Amino acid sequence: AQSVAQPEDQVNVAEGNPLTVKCTYSVSGNPYLFWYVQYPNRGLQFLLKYITGDNLVKGSYGFEAEFNKSQTSFHLKKPSALVSDSALYFCAVRDRYNFNKFYFGSGTKLNVKP
Amino acid sequence: SQTIHQWPATLVQPVGSPLSLECTVEGTSNPNLYWYRQAAGRGLQLLFYSVGIGQISSEVPQNLSASRPQDRQFILSSKKLLLSDSGFYLCAWSDSLTEAYFGQGTRLTVV
Predict the structure, then answer these.
(1) Which chain B residues are Cβ-neighbours of A101 within 8 angstroms?
(2) How confident is the model at residue A46 (pLDDT cuts 50, 70, 90)?
(3) Could you point out which of A7, B20, B61, B104 has its C-alpha 20 to 30 Å from the C-alpha of A66?
(4) B46–A40: do the CB atoms touch at under 8 Å?
């Protein structure tokens, strides 16, 4: 079965510092991986994806993620955090072999302090 | 461009009452459609998914059902709501190659 894990419930970072939100995956075959952000009482917004190609993928709002096959990780990063980045972040994997279902991690709450 | 609409945004229903949440997608055809529930502002649980009209698969046994009467319409229903049905319900769509796109969600409170 395909799955992703987010080992941190919460990440705290000061504004202007780099941030990393961790995600590890367990999939059969080549993974389709995604990051989403959710603000309170809103739907999830797509940030970026890894399908194939370069291991470093760039997405919306200055976010990027690094795909590491040997470590089965897909960590979300940003060089300089903003207070407005404070939100709930989800890593997801797409099960291409089973009706294209998406499975989400448990979410990581990012707090960026001024 | 594609858009997804989900309504209502909030709903307060008494225990034992019926439920109908609707989701429609515009600008695409034959999308994969999904219903998720998010409890306590955290993880998403996949409830139902559909790859075509009338084709519904359930991920977990529960008090809810789903239907897809038209290509771009996905409905979540219940005949009798339970307190445990409270939560944040999210509809999403994707095609065979892309990420999933989500509606704005429905906050359901069963009282």
Answers:
(1) 34, 46, 49, 59
(2) very high
(3) B104
(4) no
